[in-house]
Amino acid sequence: MSDVANIRKQLRIKAGSAKRLYKEHRLYQKEEEDLKRKLDQYVADNAEEWDVKNTRRMLEESGKMITDSATRLGAVMQELRELVLAAEQEPELAQDEELMKAKETLEEVSV
């Protein structure tokens, strides 16, 4: 496989990964907000201890997943930036559709 074809393929893969991880990261953040509201409501209503404890455990797990998804997203974004820079050095890819999409993804997903 030629170098240009390989770069084009990697641009598509990394851009897709970045979008997926960004979406996942946002979902975990939303889940954490929802769980905080739910926990506050349980505490205010003097709900059963099991409900409060379980919600706290789920909230803690969401926090861990936010950290994990942010780390993975950061790594993919760095790889994508480096790949875009490499692609810009190739004259054949100057106006390539995959390169343009990768640049759009970098702008959309900038964390």
UniProtKB/TrEMBL annotation:
Pfam families in UniProt: TBCA (PF02970)
Predominant cellular place of this UniProt entry's protein: cytoplasm
Keywords, sorted A to Z: Chaperone, Coiled coil, Cytoplasm, Cytoskeleton, Microtubule
High-level lineage: Eukaryota, Fungi, Dikarya, Basidiomycota, Agaricomycotina
InterPro entries attached to this UniProt entry: TBCA (IPR004226), TBCA_sf (IPR036126)
Entry's Gene Ontology BP terms: post-chaperonin tubulin folding pathway; tubulin complex assembly
Stated family: Belongs to the TBCA family.
Protein's UniProt name: Tubulin-specific chaperone A
Annotated compartments: Cytoplasm, Cytoskeleton
